[in-house]
């Protein structure tokens, strides 16, 4: 269940507070302690194609824009 579906149900359950509390208890998304979902780009907040090496914490698109400023050279 995605986060958007999780919040949409509240409109229907506002009239029934006990059922709403039970729904929240069993259906809310889990807090992540590790994994891909926690790693975000510090520049654009994207979580795909994450480069965490050397403490960069950038996505590949932002890394390409900022690589020369960071001191990386392109060898081809």
Write up this protein:
This protein is mostly helical and 76 residues long. The chain contains 4 helices and 2 strands. The chain has 2 domains: 1-30, no CATH class; 36-70, 30s Ribosomal Protein S14, Chain N (Irregular), CATH 4.10.830.10. The chain has helices at residues 3-8, 10-13, 17-27, 60-70, and strands spanning 50-51, 58-59. Strands 1-2 form a two-stranded antiparallel ribbon. β1 (50-51) and β2 form a beta hairpin. The chain is rod-shaped, with a radius of gyration of 20 Å.
Note the topology.
Elements (H helix, E strand, L loop, with lengths): L2 H6 L1 H4 L3 H11 L22 E2 L6 E2 H11 L6
Antiparallel strand pairs: 1-2
Total DSSP helices: 4
What coarse outline follows from CA principal-axis ratios? rod-shaped
CATH-wise, what's the superfamily of the largest domain?
Ribosomal Protein S14/S29
Helix content: 40-55%
Tell me the structural class.
Answer: mainly alpha
Mean pLDDT: 85
- Please identify, by name, the CATH architecture of the largest domain: Irregular
Task: Give the DSSP E fraction (strand runs of 2 or more residues).
Answer: 5-15%
Q: Give the strand line-up of the largest sheet.
A: 1-2
CATH class of the largest domain: Few Secondary Structures
Largest sheet: 2 strands, antiparallel
Count of domains: 2
Low-confidence stretches: none
The CATH topology of the largest domain corresponds to 30s Ribosomal Protein S14, Chain N
Compute the CA-based radius of gyration: 20 Å
- Please tally the β strands and state the result: 2
What string gives the helices and strands in order? HHHEEH
Please give the alpha-carbon distance between the first and last residues. 45 Å
